[in-house]
């Protein structure tokens, strides 16, 4: 009993609470990225390898617009809109010709897109990482830390965007089209739903969500050309663990995995904490291959 | 009324060489050209050609999965990198450094990684397989990158090239020419072995998994076991490529375990033509030469992956069989 008490005493409660907050904040951003990814997969059967690059380009657009106008919120909206148009164009040029082919072709094509975009960003913006200034500088005290309010706002805003998107899917006409296409593409087409337009729209929405998360995340670390791969990998893990195409599952998995990584970072180096999410993925694949949060059909 | 049916109608007019004869004649001609190449080419291009052969072997190993089993691996860098670090381990710990021991260690390293990937990933199909191979390769990358005491971390490991030894017969330093011949011998040998594998009953089962997995299972083949062996074989050949690269460049670096190496491997395959074994080598050659040409024309800073990426996407959309796709049936006969 004494040993157990000692162990309990050794657990750094303050650190755990701080890391819980951190984990929820990154989890919400990850959820925002992953919900775009899982939406595109669920509707179009496309694994969008370029999603991380859309995230990265969104962040760069944010950097540019914020530098020009000085307004963070304008940068956020502008980046989302620019990337939505860009995503639509990308879908029309590279993915529309591949409709009806083996889904593996689309993963290859989007991989090509990600290479091009990443190298374009490196060429255009250079290897030095850019910084997005914090939109608000106020802090609150969390134990011995001055915790920026901004991070809490990011999490809330991500949640708001996901919630708004959910309402959009549920009640708007286009949202109903999207859900109908996801359920049965042929039937949707027979009912007069313009399926190719839905595809393009879904890709545009997914891109905008990735761009928004890029701008939101920008102030916490910095923006560089290679940030995409890191995030797309984690988003892939989230999407597989949450169950491919399952929006609610992805959000739950995003928070779950981010929390685990944050806790692991208390004891090991953050770059090694990633391995925790890999382990979660392996265990999921072994025991619940349809996803940890999948509802059995 | 095309030429092909006419040929079949009048087979006696033109005496034609059998398929086997044409194949081996072609093989001999290409081999002769590649053997002669280092004697003719300037040093830089000779070195590039050796490197292309090594990348070709890596791409060919992944073709066994992509082209013949129908599983796209985005994690071949793990096998390649473990081959490199395995060779490094042998060359750094055993003295004097021994070439064959480096190969054995490299293959063992790659086999370890391949067993791991084979066990966990083969129960998944299509994109799930692709994503998990990618994530597994990242696991190896993170381990190698952060385990500085053993792997040298970010800086990697540097070692000296072993001698080219044939026990009791030959022992000398590698020259660029003998290195090229050695690489060529390994790559050509691997090609013949892989070709034999794909034409064996085992290879036929792999291709039937590619064409229709549920039916293959229904016939009674243990699909998972075939896939595991396929991943393992593919990993071994990728590891062999890693050993060759380590010997050529005298270092092992975490960059080669990183995802970009896997991505390049997939590009070589798609550009050259999957399911042909030769195609991936051609793809690697095309990619590397185009890269050299572009940086020659526009300078070292030119982002060559932008035009090459556009070509890559165009190939997927307009030429899904790749450059050598037209010869696919013939090469597999």
Description of the structure:
The complex is a heterodimer of chains A (297) and B (333). Chain A has 12 helices and 2 strands. Chain A is an all-alpha fold and 297 residues long. Chain A has a domain at 27-225. Chain A has a two-stranded antiparallel sheet with strand order 1-2. In chain A, a hairpin with a 2-residue loop joins strand 1 and strand 2. In chain A, helix 7 crosses helix 9. The longest helix of chain A has 32 residues, at 13-44. Chain A is globular and about 70 Å long. Chain A starts with a helix and ends in a 10-residue tail after the last helix. Chain B is mainly alpha-helical and 333 residues long. Chain B has a domain at 42-259. Chain B is built from 15 helices and 4 strands. Chain B has helices spanning 3-9, 19-40, 43-69, 76-93, 99-121, 126-146, 148-151, 176-199, 201-211, 213-219, 223-249, 259-272, 278-298, 305-318, 328-331, and strands spanning 157-158, 164-166, 170-172, 251-252. The chains are: A mainly alpha (297), B mainly alpha (333). Chains A and B meet through helix 5, helix 10 and helix 12 of A and helix 6, helix 12 and helix 14 of B.
């Amino acid at each position: 009993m004494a040993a157990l008490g000692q162990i309990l005493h050794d657990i750094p409660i303050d650190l755990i609470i701080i890391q819980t907050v951190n984990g929820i904040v990154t989890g919400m951003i990850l959820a925002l990225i992953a919900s775009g990814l899982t939406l595109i997969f669920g509707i179009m059967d496309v694994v969008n390898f370029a999603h991380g690059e859309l995230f990265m380009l969104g962040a760069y657009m944010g950097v540019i617009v914020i530098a020009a106008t000085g307004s963070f919120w304008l940068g956020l909206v502008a980046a989302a809109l620019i990337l939505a148009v860009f995503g639509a164009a990308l879908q029309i040029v590279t993915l529309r010709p591949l409709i009806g082919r083996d889904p593996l072709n689309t993963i290859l094509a989007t991989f090509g897109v990600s290479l091009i975009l990443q190298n374009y960003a490196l060429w255009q913006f250079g290897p030095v990482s850019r910084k997005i200034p914090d939109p608000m500088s106020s802090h609150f005290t969390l134990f011995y830390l001055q915790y920026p309010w901004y991070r809490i706002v990011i999490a809330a805003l991500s949640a708001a965007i996901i919630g708004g998107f959910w309402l959009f899917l549920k009640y708007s006409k286009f949202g109903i089209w999207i859900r109908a296409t996801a359920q049965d593409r042929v039937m949707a087409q027979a009912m007069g739903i313009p399926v190719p337009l839905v595809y393009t729209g879904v890709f545009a929405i997914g891109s905008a969500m990735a761009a928004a998360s890029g701008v939101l995340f920008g102030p916490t670390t910095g923006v560089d050309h290679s940030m995409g791969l890191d995030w797309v990998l984690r988003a892939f893990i989230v999407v597989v663990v949450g169950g491919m195409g399952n929006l609610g599952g992805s959000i739950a998995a995003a928070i779950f995995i981010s929390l685990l990584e944050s806790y692991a970072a208390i004891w090991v180096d953050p770059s090694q904490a990633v391995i925790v999410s890999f382990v979660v993925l392996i265990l999921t694949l072994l025991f619940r291959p349809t996803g940890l949060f999948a509802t059995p059909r | 009324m095309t030429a092909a049916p006419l040929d079949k109608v009048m087979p006696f007019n033109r005496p034609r060489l059998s398929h086997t004869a044409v194949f081996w004649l072609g093989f001999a001609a290409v081999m002769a050209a590649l053997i002669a190449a280092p004697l003719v080419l300037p040093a830089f291009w000779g070195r590039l050609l050796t490197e292309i052969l090594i990348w070709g072997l890596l791409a060919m190993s992944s073709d066994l999965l992509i082209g013949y089993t129908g599983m796209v691996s985005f994690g071949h860098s793990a096998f390649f990198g473990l081959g490199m670090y395995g060779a490094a381990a042998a060359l750094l710990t055993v003295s004097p450094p021994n070439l064959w021991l480096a190969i054995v260690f490299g293959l063992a390293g790659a086999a370890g990684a391949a067993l791991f990937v084979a066990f966990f990933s083969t129960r998944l199909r299509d994109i799930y397989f692709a994503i998990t191979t990618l994530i597994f390769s990242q696991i190896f990358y993170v381990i190698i990158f952060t385990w500085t005491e053993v792997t040298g971390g970010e800086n990697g490991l540097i070692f000296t090239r072993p001698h080219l030894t044939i026990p009791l017969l030959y022992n000398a330093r590698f020259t660029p020419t003998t290195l090229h011949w050695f690489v060529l011998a390994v790559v050509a040998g691997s090609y013949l072995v892989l070709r034999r594998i794909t034409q064996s009953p085992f290879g036929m089962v792999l291709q039937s998994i590619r064409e229709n997995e549920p039916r293959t299972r229904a016939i009674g083949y243990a699909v998972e076991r075939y896939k595991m062996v396929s991943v393992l074989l593919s990993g071994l050949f990728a590891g062999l490529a890693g050993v060759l690269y380590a010997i050529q460049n005298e270092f092992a670096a975490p960059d080669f375990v990183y995802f970009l190496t896997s991505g390049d491997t997939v590009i070589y395959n798609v550009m050259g033509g999957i399911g042909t074994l030769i195609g991936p080598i051609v793809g690697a050659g095309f990619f590397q030469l185009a890269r050299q040409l572009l940086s020659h024309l526009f300078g070292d800073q030119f982002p060559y992956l932008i035009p090459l990426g556009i070509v890559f996407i165009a190939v997927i959309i307009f030429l899904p069989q790749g450059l050598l796709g037209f010869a696919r049936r013939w090469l597999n006969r």
